[in-house]
Give the backbone structure.
Amino acid sequence: MNDVIRRPQCITCLRPASHCICGCIRPVDDAGTGRAPVLILQHPLEVTNVKNSARLLHLCLPGSTLVTGEAFEPAALAALLAGPRRAVLLYPDTPGDRSLGIAPPPTYEPADAEELLLVVLDATWRKSRKMLYLNPALQALPRLALQDVPPSRYLVRKAHAPGQLSTLEATAYALAQIEADEKKFAPLIDAFDCFVGRLQAAEAAHRHAG
């Protein structure tokens, strides 16, 4: 059997070294603040997707947690959601949920960032619905819906419906909404613009080489 030739990989962003995005990392300064921590649940198919923004989001948010899976072991998921903070899911409540047998979620009650854990699903819309369906503990969480967000800056990925955002954008706007502080989370959008710019440059170089 021939050995598989693997390209050198960056140990931080987990991308091929030639496409490293570490230069786009813009850490959000949470010193002396009570920013809501973020738990990112990433679908396995997104891990190697070069257009996926969750890893960059994780690297920009000190104290965030990134876990990969689809149907999580109940005890393990419960442990991730447990703690003094109240977990809230960044996900809209849609009529389609009822067709899947998913009951209406508990009412979301706004609270200070110090009281919340923001849970984010990183997946396509279809896969995120499946993650929700397969994990009753996620169904039981109150949901935070985004309000008055700008158009997506995700120029390298086509949205299938108005208002669809990347995982990084959605999380940045959710945190800004929770804290009523857009400026604080502007570094996340700067990081995303850098990320998208590098993807566009790589695509242009590939077309030119072809």
